[in-house]
Write a structure and sequence with these properties.
Layout (H helix, E strand, L loop, with lengths): L1 E5 L2 E3 L7 E2 L4 E2 L6 E3 L1 H16 L5 E7 L5 H10 L3 E5 L6 H13 L5 E5 L10 H9 L2 E12 L2 E8 L2 E8 L2 E5 L11 H7 L4 E4 L30 H10 L5
Parallel strand pairs: 1-6, 1-8, 6-7, 7-13, 8-12, 9-12
Antiparallel strand pairs: 2-5, 3-4, 9-10, 10-11
């Protein structure tokens, strides 16, 4: 069984966000980039666990991005990925990313394609579903557990008011959420081995972007907090009526 794990490059959560060119571009100067946590902690680690149980033979890392993304690819390989593919293009549009991944995966016959449930920068949750649509295969979103029995997967995911358990035959695409696996830290042996693992770099196809950025806007600064004495409920009621805003 062949597994493909899609990873994206995102700013570290402690990054101070700023924009340039009249708020039309993200300012990447001095920004620390990491593997998107949902891709790393849940999608990648669960794929590796399936391989360790001899339920899969190969775990390939997929990334759409330029050469500055090789560092996060090497980390994914250090955690345990076998090899990697990088589509040499800027990932500026969800459809562009999905189409490039699907175009490559179509000829490789992967049994399961893993993504994180979303990225922590744009929070779009679009790429996994688009890949499945382009490959005309099943898509399961927000999966928190995945077990394999031959070519049948039993997947658990959270839904409004409860949990849903699904059975699906391979091939399929799954987006992974909290609960799927536990974060792993690459050890020295993995780091050394990752240096010799192959990264296949291929040019992008003729995919046309469907969206463009008009501008970015930072959220409004948080207002100050007003403390009301528990002995003065009338003041609380007055503030709720006169000053509170519904967001």
């Amino acid at each position: 069984m062949k597994l493909l794990v899609c990873i994206s490059k995102t700013p570290d959560t402690t990054t101070k966000i700023a924009f340039t060119d009249n708020n039309t571009k993200f300012n990447a100067d001095k920004v620390q980039f990491i593997i998107n946590p949902y891709d790393e902690w849940y999608a990648l680690v669960r794929a590796l666990e399936l391989k360790e149980k001899n339920l899969a033979q190969q775990v390939t890392i997929m990334h759409v991005g330029k050469a500055d993304g090789d560092a996060i690819i090497r980390k994914a390989l250090a955690i345990g990925g076998d090899d990697a593919v990088r589509i040499d293009a800027e990932p500026e549009d969800a459809f562009f990313v999905a189409n490039e991944i699907a175009a490559y995966a179509k000829s490789e016959n992967y049994d399961i394609i893993f993504t994180g449930k979303e990225t922590i920068d744009y929070n779009g949750s679009q790429v996994g579903g688009m890949i499945a649509g382009l490959l005309d295969t099943a898509f399961i979103s927000l999966a928190s557990k995945l077990e394999l029995n031959g070519n049948t997967a039993t997947i658990e995911r959270d839904i409004a008011g409860g949990e849903e358990i699904i059975e699906v035959m391979t091939p399929f695409v799954v987006s992974c959420a909290k609960g799927m696996a536990e974060q792993r830290i690459p050890n020295m042996r993995g780091i050394m081995a990752s240096r010799t693992k192959p990264i296949k770099v291929i040019p992008p196809g003729a995919t046309e972007k469907l969206t463009s950025v008009r501008y970015y806007e930072l959220p409004a600064e948080k207002a100050g907090c007003k403390m009301i004495s528990p002995d003065n409920p009338a003041e609380l009621v007055r503030l709720l009526h006169e000053e509170a805003k519904v967001i």
